[in-house]
Amino acid sequence: MVFTQLHFSVAAGGAIVLRGPNGSGKTTLLRLMAGLARPVTGQLKWSGAALEDSDAHGKHLRFIGHLDAIKPAFTVRENLTFWRDFWNTGDASRVVDAMEAFGLAALADFPARLLSAGQRHRLALARLIASPAPLWLLDEPANALDDRSLNALTRTIADHRAKGGMVILASHGADLVSGGTTLALDKFTPTEVMQWDET
Amino acid sequence: MAFENFAAFIDMGGYAAWVWTAYGLATVALVGMLVVSRRTLKARTREFEEMKANRK
Amino acid sequence: MHKFANPTQFMRIANAIYPWVAGICVLLFAAAIPIALMFSPPDYQQGETVRIMYIHVSSAWLMMMIYGIIAANSAMFLIWRHPMANLVARASAPMGAVFCALALITGMLWGQPMWGTFWVWDARLTSTLILFFLYIGYIALADAFEDSERGDKAAAILALVGSVNVPIIHFSVEWWNTLHQPSIIKASKEGVDSSVHSSILLPLFLMMGAFTMFYFALLVLRLRSELLAAKIRNARLSQIAGHSAAQPAE
Amino acid sequence: MSVFTALLSRDLKLALRQSADSLTVIAFFAIATVLFPFGVGPEAEVLSRIAAGVVWVAALLAALLSLDRVFTVDFEDGTLDQLLLNGQSMTLVVLAKVIAHWLTTGVPLIIMSPVLAVTLQLPAEGYGTLVLALLLGTPTVSLVGALGAALVLGARRGGVLLSLLVLPLYIPVLIFGTAAVEAALTGMPSAPMLSILGGFALIAVTLCPFGTAAALRQAAE
CA-nearest residue of chain C to A3? Predict the structure, then answer.
């Protein structure tokens, strides 16, 4: 929507960091890659084949956006269990692993409405482990995280890539990946949403 | 000609109130749509021209 | 078909036929109005009130035709994402609502002298009323979003849902009507239907033609203004995008 | 199917935890019905004539009230984005949501309806058909309503707009729903009307989920 002439790809184990000022379209680009938005022109390819069916694309990826998709009436465990059951990848024990990885194990049976902003964000990130998928799309994942959680996230991303997973994340702060490609979005000229010829 | 004189035409066989109201409302509706549409078109043309002029 | 998807191409054709459509519209009105009001004979049962029928039926015809046009264009917009189809649907909707209202009001003005009451739960009037609500819903939904693209798509989906529903609603109301209506009104309605002869058909067709041409002529005008609105909006959007991208350099 | 079962059981569990929501809808249904005797007078003859229609209209309005929250909460907290990335089929997601809505509002309304019909002096012959008609008609109400709710996500004045969009589409259900009860009261067979209601439900279940899925997709865009 806001970029032209953007072309890139990510290989297994690879990572891309999207950088750019506010309004440069990092979120839009992530949502395009998730299949949540459709490009006006241009194509999304998975393993070399163009993606036609956005419904099926969902099983390739986990998307963590600004909204955490947490039900306050459920406990931490119930929130994670639901998403694991929903996507049905990985075994049930991963819910516990996920809570441990992001330091939520002690909070497992607390209702999510009691969590702080940082804890909620960690709970959202824990979905990455609870129900695995090859491609992670993370929108500003470092937001609201303390140093320990930041380390946990960095480690989780490194593990994921070591196992052949891919990560694309938008960030304007800390470096969460090593050896990834950086894509600076402010280089691409903004254009009109729909182009009309002058009459 | 279905009417003998002008008065009969206006009277519409006693149904003047209904017939003329219906035709009057139809006229108001059609002319109203025309006027409103033309006015928005003119307003937008002006706005567009101003935008173009400001850009240069 | 895809040639018409390009706004420039589309408007070139539309602007070329506009004077013809407008001219034919004026000619048809010039013929239809005197014939409908003066030269055609009164109906043997309805008397002079039959003259209301010419505009009533013409409005009713347009409200249905416009709904069809909106539904077809909504489908084209959703499937092929033709921007022009969307604009046609959006530019047509207010006109459809006005014709629908006109059909309702003239129907009431016709019903009062004929049936002795402004409103009867006659199948046609009831269906028209429901269609009017569908039009209002469509227009309200199309304008309910800050992001106009969302309004376009939501309204297009609604129009398609409506097009499946209109026949169902019509059938239901028709059935409900035969269940509940006393036979007097039915009889007088059949009186109208059976008395359709040429002296009525000529002014009716002229009036329907005039109304139809009026719609197409006005559609071209409204499309021009919708296109301008889209251009203005896009220019604003690109200004905003330009500003934010320029920020870090400053 | 994991998408369907997981989501359905989650929605039911949520509804159980927040059961006040469902109870409010039922309370509204009762209040709306009880208003009618005050409006038309307590004469048993008048009330029994309009009983079926009143129960149906009040049930439709109560269902309408509950539709607002079918997708709104999920839309606002980001759950909808994740539901769209289910990897199987958005239609399944929609079906799970609709069935959950029907179980948490449609079914309580059906259970409540005979009680309210008693206060409106509905003759004894009518109850079976009233419940059957509601049983066949409310799925359509949920299906069409979910479509409307998906369309108005994020709209200004969403609630009012929803009623404007959805109520005209409910008219066929209302017509045949009340006609079925009326037929039963006059000793005529009500099966034709009931089968038409079933037909509406079949049409709705084949078409509405696709429309709803499309509407949800464009709401997230």
Answer: C241
